[in-house]
Amino acid sequence: MNDALPGPEFWDLIEPHTGTVTHVQPTARGFSTDLTAVVECERGPVFVKAVPNRPGGRRDSLVREGLINPHVTPLSPPVVWQAENDDWVALGFEVIDGRSSNFRPGSADLPTIADLTNRIGNLPLPDVARDWAETRWDRFVADDSEVALLRGDTLLYTDINPSNFVIGDDSAWVVDWAWPTRGAGLIDPATLVVQLIAAKHDPADAESWAEGCDAWVKADPSAVDVFVRATVRMYRAHAERFPDQPWRKAMVDAVESWAEHRGVTVPAA
Fold it and tell me: pLDDT tens across 148-193, in order?
């Protein structure tokens, strides 16, 4: 084990599930996970995500991912074990063989990306998610009537991006269900539109891919406009807070171009 990996107490925690560990290949860490790695072990390879067992958002997120997993497979790789002690919380996932998707114009992945987004929107809302109301856009809308347009009973994923849509030879998956919520069905296809524009689609083309999603087709255009305005304000606030992260300004540019396409005006604060 190298110094970047957890200490012995972690490997003691997962050994009942893995048997003897023979090799650990860390992967790129997400913003909320201390360890993501493919672990080669006596009982076969497993993809492991783990965070310190301390109160707060990172622990809550991993626990929520474990709770939602049975309801989102086979769209997501299944969790094959869960483990927790005083120091760590860990999930072991079935290993999948695939690559990050390509969101850029002309990509052969685009039909699969649209299909995955639609499949997310058609998942039943499980009881475990009924109290997970989506509130991240609330402070960026004008009033309670706009908040109401973003509420609903659809299971939301909300983290659509090329890294989280994984394409294999015969299958495709949506990984990293770090913060599923319950809200208006338009939110996930609208998030897809934002990501496609950020990947250099023009707004009309990006919206045409969202048209493959049932929730988008059914959405009230005025509710979509509320989402657009709120998202512009959200990304502007994030870019102002983190001026040293240029990708945030790029996201502002993307969603502002979408607002212009829809004729939505969002004055500067």
Answer: 999 999 999 999 999 999 999 999 999 999 999 999 999 999 999 9
Cα–Cα distance for residue pair 209/232, rounded to 1 Å: 21
Helix/strand/coil (H, E, C) string of 209-261? HHCCCHHHHHCCHHHHHHHHHHHHHHHHHHHHHCCCCHHHHHHHHHHHHHHHH
| Backbone torsions φ then ψ of 225, nearest 5 degrees | -65, -35
Numbered ranges of CATH 3.90.1200.10 in the chain: 99-262
pLDDT in tens, 8-57: 999 999 999 999 999 999 987 555 568 999 999 999 999 999 999 999 88
Check: CB of residue 13 under 8 Å from CB of residue 35.
no
Superfamily for domain range 8-93: Phosphorylase Kinase; domain 1 (3.30.200.20)
Domain 99-262 has CATH 3.90.1200.10: yes
Contact 258, 192 (CB under 8 A): no
